[in-house]
Structure formats: structure tokens, C-alpha cells
Design a protein that fits this description.
Elements lengths: L5 H10 L6 H13 L3 H12 L12 E3 L2 E7 L2 E7 L8 H6 E3 L4 H11 L1
Antiparallel strand pairs: 1-4, 2-3
Helix pairs in contact: 1-2, 2-3
Length: about 120
């Protein structure tokens, strides 16, 4: 019987584009528990379940914000995108980037729905 080292399974899952990222993250979480690596445990739990605190969200989970507005003048209505650069401070900085707090499964679902 062939045995595969746990980290090799994680690598195999990561390079397989047909698989969800949840599986390798769960395996990494398990590995973190085996070796008692709290930093790895916290990282994988945040990636799987989402980030609760904005201070802990890594920069790679930051994306450019898009502001959609609805304008109405009497009976005329218009919807569209407003460039964030047109806003005054402090709103411009607050809305320029958005942190993606959701867990990886929700992000993957959004991506599949978008395709």
C-alpha cells in the first residue's frame, strides 16, 4: 500500500485546479495541530471560516473597491458606478480598498457564480 506524506497531499491538492482550496487548508490545519503550530492553526482557521477582525486580514485579501450608486431626480433614475477618486476624504481612503473577510468556500462560490 502506498503512503503519501500529509504535506505532499496538500501540495497535490493545491496544484489540482479542479479541487477546492478547503481540502488542503483542512489538511494544513490538521498538520498544524499535529506539530502544535498555533500560527498555522490560526491561519488555516481564518482562511476556512473567514476573518473576524480587520486587523488580522492579510494584504492579499485586499481588493479595489467599486462603488455603485442609484441617483434619482424626480421621475428620472440612473444607476452607475462612481469612481472612488471623486469622493472627499476620509471616504476616499475608506472605500478605495475592500478587505475580503469571507471564508475560502464563499470566495470560491462567488468566483464560480461570476464565471
Amino acid at each position: 500500500m502506498k503512503q503519501t506524506f500529509l504535506l505532499q497531499e496538500v501540495i497535490d491538492d493545491l496544484v489540482n485546479t479542479e479541487k477546492s482550496l478547503s481540502s488542503p487548508l483542512m489538511k494544513l490545519n490538521y498538520f498544524g495541530r499535529l506539530v502544535k503550530n498555533q500560527e498555522l492553526i490560526d491561519y488555516t482557521q481564518n482562511e476556512l471560516n473567514g476573518y473576524r477582525d480587520q486587523e488580522n486580514i492579510p494584504d492579499y485579501r485586499r481588493t479595489i473597491g467599486t462603488l455603485f450608486i442609484d441617483m434619482q431626480m424626480y421621475i428620472h433614475r440612473h444607476s452607475g458606478q462612481l469612481p472612488v477618486s471623486m469622493l472627499e476624504e476620509p471616504y476616499r481612503d475608506a472605500l478605495k480598498y475592500v478587505y475580503v473577510r469571507e471564508g475560502i468556500a464563499a470566495i470560491e462560490k462567488l468566483y464560480r457564480d461570476w464565471e
